[in-house]
User: Fold this.
Amino acid sequence: MFELFKNLGKWLVSGSSWSGSDGIAHRLAEHLQYSLLATLIAAAIGLPLGLLIGHTGKGAFLAINLSSFGRALPTVGLVVLVFLAGGLSMLPVYVALVALAVPAIVTNTYAGMTAVDPDVKDAARGQGMRGHQILFQVELPLALPLIMTGLRLALIQVVATATIAAYVSFGGLGRYVFDGLAQRDLVQVLGGAVLVAVVAVALDLLLSTLQRLLFRHRAA
Amino acid sequence: MNRRTLLGGLFAAASVPALAACSSGITSLDGSGTTSGGGSGSSKGGVTIGTANFTENQVLGYLYAAVLQQAGVKVKVRPNLGTREIVIPALKGGDIDLLPEYQGALLNYLAPKDNSSEPGTMQNALTLAMPSGLQVLPYGQAADSDCFVVTRATARKYGLTTLADLAKQNGKLVIGAAPEVKKRRVGAIGLKDVYGVEFKEFKSLDSDGPLVKGALKKGDVDVANLFTTDTDIAANDWVVLTDPKNLIPSQHIVPLIADRKADDTVRKALAKLGNVLTTEQLTQLNSQVDNDKKDPEDVANAYAKQHGLA
Amino acid sequence: MTIDWSWIGDHTDDLTSLTISHLQAALTAVFFGLLISLPLAVIAHRIRPLRGFLLGVSNVLFTIPSIAIFVLLLPVSGLTRTTTVIGLTVYTLVVLLRNTVEGLDSVPAKTKEAAKAMGTRPLRALLTVEFPLALPVIMAGVRIATVMSISLVSVATYIGDGGLGQLFTDGFQRDFPTPVIVGVVLTILLAVVADALLVALQYVLTPWRRRRA
Assistant:
């Protein structure tokens, strides 16, 4: 056991592990690219959806239960399916990651919107504000903390799941896990796992600190 | 019924499937599960056959199952377990009992420094290199080797006919193979040592599966590591690079079995199969699974019946 | 991409046994997750300094890719169902711990004080007052853990288990979409049904919430 961690340490600090196309630096960059892009796409889909459902109140059932459905999707199956349909490209990976992230974003955006005090909305309406004005000038700013939480949770989930890119031959930190499995090289597997965890935790800390700074003037 | 009784009842009910699950095994695609080990050198308690993660090995696994069942042995098959690096430890550990293997590749895994290439010599070397508790049974006539292929266009472009020609393009070509091939002698290591070949990049794909073949077709890789029994090679007019220095040994199929399960019934049944199955026939069986989408089990059973083995 | 319906007809036996095996793995993991997380949650809830530590560790565990945990367990328990269940339990444990602590937190302090004032012993108060009141949040955790577990079982196909997940690797190797589609549909169905049953269970277990309506 101790041997394993000692070798892991050696692997992590050795310069040769970091350079080259299979190096940690490159795989890290790939992994971040997949995660950030997938979360961005998911936000582009999920934010408008969540805002719309929260603002109009229609489709609440979808918003509440989408998370359950999203959690039920088997990522392996989804990746394989899109691969068989669309061939060897990053599309299957992005489809699976976006499908995973959208529910978290929609549910949290919707939750943020419903947390807005209805009296505030009434007051705005009383002042003569139109629907979309209420949405963007009243509801959205007030819902922002929960929306940001949704984005943060989605990103962390995607980072942990982006290892699936390696299932269909692509890069990212999942490559270490898969190659390590095939070669029975547990140091590589552990290395990949540790790196993913570190990236996820670091991003989580970064974003939650950012959130706290942005909203520190708001009442708790 | 009050809530407390209901909760207590639920708890009890939940623990039953949980405990049952612990003692049950794994259900495989063919509906079978694992079995516990029997006595020493006896197949009476049943034999668990494991297979690696590529089509041919599964066909072989089910062929073994068919002939053993005919001989009266209780069989379970656990298909698609993973690479040799995963499956052999499982054999040593007792999770499986029998495995279809390949002489050259197995010898390379157990004794990397051994350079034998004749089937007879290799069989002796294998017996010597066996870890305790395992043994190889006589090899069959069918063989399947690794090969390195390029597209007809690539062969023409760089003038490639043998593996030695690859060294002339060092640093320019990309090779695609299963991840474990990077560390194997019949793989990146051997190509470098014996032919002096250095690739621009090694892409981790799969064992003669959709990833490596798709990549070769698309041009994502220049060289692909495939198996000689794959009908796609001829179908796509791919060129197999020849091996003048005999890096790739002949790979007759040989059963690898745990001592505790090796008895005469098993030996006789598997020997009969080994004498009947030819490389041509195995190639056809593989094609039925990959191209006709038939189940490995059905294909194996049909073959066994057809040839009087089951 | 078309579905070969005859394949489905020919394989109903296999599909049934795979589904049962799949469900068994998921439920076992939830069971053991509960078994471990309930006492841990009480500790985290009661002992302030340990709370941060336990929740922190579980958050980090959650970020480890499931395939990695399965592979790292191979030297421990081999290519067996045990490996799959241990791996799954890590994740159910995290979810259940989080939710149970949150549930216990949500019990109003006044209610606990009232129980104490009535002379109820701490253990009895825990079992008859705190847990029942925390039940809605705990059940939400059980639902999440169950659905997540059902989805994660497929990843174990890379270590020779995987229930319905085996349909994915099989379809992938042969360029055959039918088993993959069937596997995805069955997995989702399994999760949706399990979730619905748990909602019904929660309804049955919390009669006082019904009375309010």
Notes: The two ends of chain A are 45 Å apart (CA to CA).
